[in-house]
Amino acid sequence: HVVRKFLGLISSHNIPVYLIDPLILGLVDKDIEKIKTSPGGPSLECKYFCAPRDFTTFALLDKTWKHEVGLFRTAEKMGFQWLKIINKDPRLDGMEDLSGIEIPLHYIFKLASHAIHLVVFYERSGNYLWHGPLRLKQHMDRKFVPFRKLHFGRYPGAYEKPELLLISIDDLKVQIPKNPSSFLEEMSHSRFLECRYREARAFFQLYPDDASLDAVEFRKKAKSLLHLAALTLNNLGVKFWLSSGTCLGWYRQCSVIPHSKDVDLGVFIRDYKADIIPAFQKAGLPLKHKFGKVEDSLELSFQGEDDVKLDIFFFYEEDDYIWNGGTQAKSGKKFKYLFPKFTLCWTEFVELKVHVPCETLQYVEANYGPDWKVPVKTWDWKSSPSNAQYNGVWPINEWEDVIQIY
Amino acid sequence: MDEWKPNPAIKPHKKRSWYLAWKYKLMNQRALRKLCQTGAVLFLLVTVIVNIKLILDTRRAAYEEEEEPAQDYDDEMLNVEVPRHPVSNKKVLDVEVYSSRSKVYVAVDGTTILEDEAREQGRGIHVIVLNQATGHVMAKRVFDTYSPHEDEAMVLFLNMVARGRILIFTIKDEGSFHLKDTAKNVLKSLGSQVAPFLSWRDMWTFVGKKGGEVYGEKHAKSPALSTWGDPVLLKTEVHLTSVEDAECRWPDTELNRRRKRFCSKVEGYGSVCSCKDPTPIEFNPDPLKDNKVFDVPVAVIAGNRPNYLYRMLRSLLSAQGVNPQMITVFIDGYYEEPMDVVELFGLSGIQHTPISIKNARVSQHYKASLTATFNLFPDAKFAVVLEEDLDISVDFFSFLSQSIHLLEEDESLYCISAWNDQGYEHTAEDPSLLYRVETMPGLGWVLRKSLYKDELEPKWPTPEKLWDWDMWMRMPEQRKGRECIIPDISRSYHFGIVGLNMNGYFHEAYFKKHKFNTVPNVQLKNVESLRKDAYETEIHRLLGEAEILDHSKNPCEDSFVPDTEGKVYVMFIRMEQEADFTTWTQLAKCLHIWDLDVRGNHKGLWRLFRKKNHFLVVGVPASPYSSKKPSSVTPIYMEPPAKEEGAAVPAVAAAEQT
């Protein structure tokens, strides 16, 4: 059987791969307890690998092997046809003027009518694993395998580093992610967006970066605040994304906007937890103000180091749009900021794996209008955003609750 | 004599007539003889100075040539690639070689592969090596054999070229003045009839196969000292051999496939391409037990000095505990040959588009390389930074493995460096000894990621600032009082003699006699005592133990230090405040150690060895260790030499002689 042959091949070259095929992992997950406890003796039936499929998917950690020519020679001798998909190394994409590095992203080994899809994972800054998209170059055989049916490669993806487990199924020993169901969960929203490095460079050509000591200092503080916020929210299991100015900085220039003076995050109100405020306080970030309430226009601000503020905006989902609220402390006026619906993607920002809206352009345009590419230093959060709407006034008797300033 | 010297004979001539006129004027005076003598001495002096200037100018010209490698490269790129197509289906090459005073060129099948008509450069013998099967250019060199020692370099190069290769020679301007017999004999052995008789300003072209036939030779003699031989143009045909004949029959392994690719492309690397007994390209040094730096990325910063890179990588890959997968070579520019060297050793290389010029270009290349290193190895807490002109000691990684935890734990450390600026043959002794110093030596060092990411990268000098990256890193704004750990005996050796800030004289004076550890597995002594506070205790212990030297003697004299071994001595020099290095600089000068700026100090203390004794120098009263000075001892003061006009010239000239 092809999988057996393939596993023989890779073990003979000492290449540590692990199974990430969603269909098989799904089956394995159902029987996980049984498989863990069974001694792995010979089994007669072929329950997992043998269902008729076009391919089986494995993962390979780049740093655990040396790109060896020998592997392919042996593969050929065993009758495999193989295809290698290479592309630019995204870890160097953010840097100007480097070349010489194209890295393998995917391998496909085909034998008879079955193929093995080997996805190469790379470690990236932010302590996560990344795999690339599968894009065919012009001269490549488009019918080598039914590419459209592959489970990996439509988009690049970001994953946590998995813990592995050696199991024995269908008489074969394979490594799998220790917790298949959470891996499958992770896979379903693993889509990764690369920062737009080329556009960012063009932006800096037009508007040279602020290299002053103040700017350097602010960026450093904003970065450590973001790291602390991410750590705190991740520990709570609260999903968040880069919002407002921080999102604009990522999208427009792949860096923190030095004159933005705060860090902005978005959180869906359904993910709100009462623990958020104490958790931040414990992390050394006292609550600065709280506007609105869970039912309406909630917004939290925490005081970071030296005047750098962390704003968390809570987003409310309607049928055809998403919005968050704002409150003017002295007048009790409410504002509403409307966004088209969006989903979340992973990206890397200041050495952190974080979410951003996948539909970033619409998100940024809703917030900053069509001229978002032009830096603006004076920004009024009540009138400048192009998606700001006046939303009435809080009733006086609620003020004590919905306008809390510390 | 400020400009170039097409005819060095003329000016002395003029001087002589001026001298004669003067002589006639004084003819009838009584002191005639005396004056004549003085005049002759003066004349000699002038000639000497003129000659020194000439030498310096030549050096400067050579140096300036160095500065524009990019331009050379463009030419090469254009020309190297072209002949491939016409050549491949043809068995005969038409070769044209031109030699003249101001221009040389070589064309193969109508394609120019060398053309040099630039003024004031490219003087000497141009050599091109072609692959005898494909006709590809494998090497291009020019040896300025008008100047001394260049002929030796040419002999070395020609000896390294494999038998069967096609060699093309042509002279531009002058190529015989320092072409010694050894070199002439080598040319003769290649089949040249003219070489033994080549003389002043002759023009010459020659095409031959190494160890085989001669395809043609042309020569034009210079009719007089002040003129050049007529230009010569040699047109000849070269018969190509089959590819099989041009390649060695090495066993078919992955290593040999890399070797084959390399050897069919470039020349001048000697035994690595030897058919019979090729030198290994994989070294498998012993692994290091408990290697703490196995997962530390190694960034090799390179330019376009592929021969240096080759030597460097050989020593790096031979060092115990090396992990080739962590090595990345960063090449500043789209140079092919350095990349070929990288691939020969199966390493990964990244090319970087040059940004800015000179020192700023190097700085930008450093920044890009360091950023890329930490991007590629996101887990790394450190990076080892090496340069292409360093030999790496066999225990380099062992040295780092034993000391790296200090860099991780001691916030007062800036780096660990393999290089001791003051560690010369006569001043370094103990391979197991480490120091703390307030300077940043570079030349093989470890950088902490947090230092780079949080402090250095965000404010790295921008391209328009023409700063040296290392000078910048040494500035107090960056260093912030932190120190580096260095070994007494360096774990790297700086062998480069061509470079942006380097020339032969400078290398000879400051680098050649540097001590370099060759002992494997050195167990470092007392590593914990290198921590901030522990080190102070250690220094106080040392000073307590030290014998005070006789301060009435001259510290430059050898007898200043008794003829003992293994003792600790201390001397006190005058150092009014923290930045007063007047006496230290004079002392460093007479001890023949680094004196161009202050290196290797720790709180006004220097540690080195003299006659196998540990020798401590304390600057009084600036150093906190001044309290160790007994009141009876007067710190030694050494005066800087009075600033005489031109004082530097004789010094340089004297060094030139050695």
TrEMBL record, chain A:
What is the topology of this protein in the membrane according to its UniProt annotation?
Single-pass membrane protein
Report the protein name in the record: Ribitol-5-phosphate transferase
Keyword flag Transmembrane:
yes
| Keywords of this entry | Membrane, Transmembrane, Transmembrane helix
LicD/FKTN/FKRP nucleotidyltransferase domain residues: 237-274
Matching entries from InterPro entries are given as: FKTN/MNN4/W02B3.4-1, FKTN_N, LicD/FKTN/FKRP_NTP_transf
Record's subcellular location: Membrane
**CC per GO annotation:** Golgi membrane
Which residue intervals define the domain Ribitol-5-phosphate transferase FKTN N-terminal in the entry? 1-223
Q: Name one GO biological process term.
A: glycoprotein metabolic process
Where does the UniProt annotation place the signal sequence?
none
**Protein encoded by which gene:** Fktn
UniProt superkingdom: Eukaryota
Pfam family example for this protein? FKTN_N
Q: What is the lineage of its organism?
A: Eukaryota, Metazoa, Chordata, Craniata, Vertebrata
Q: Which family does it belong to?
A: Belongs to the LicD transferase family.
UniProtKB/TrEMBL annotation, chain B:
Report the co-factor binding details.
The manganese ion interacts primarily with the substrate UDP-N-acetylglucosamine.
Q: Where in the cell is it found?
A: Golgi apparatus membrane
Give, as in the UniProt entry, the pathway in which the protein acts: Protein modification; protein glycosylation
Q: Note the Gene3D superfamilies from the entry.
A: Spore Coat Polysaccharide Biosynthesis Protein SpsA, Chain A
Its EC top class is: transferase
Catalysed conversion reaction: 3-O-(alpha-D-mannosyl)-L-threonyl-[protein] + UDP-N-acetyl-alpha-D-glucosamine = 3-O-(N-acetyl-beta-D-glucosaminyl-(1->2)-alpha-D-mannosyl)-L-threonyl-[protein] + UDP + H(+)
- Domain remark text: The stem domain mediates specific interaction with beta-linked N-acetylglucosamine moieties of O-glycosylated proteins. It also interacts with its product, N-acetyl-beta-D-glucosaminyl-(1->2)-O-alpha-D-mannosylprotein.
Q: Which family does it belong to?
A: Belongs to the glycosyltransferase 13 family.
Subunit composition and interactions: Interacts with DAG1 (via O-linked mannose moiety). Interacts (via transmembrane domain) with FKTN; the interaction is direct and is required for normal location in Golgi membranes.
Q: What is this protein called?
A: Protein O-linked-mannose beta-1,2-N-acetylglucosaminyltransferase
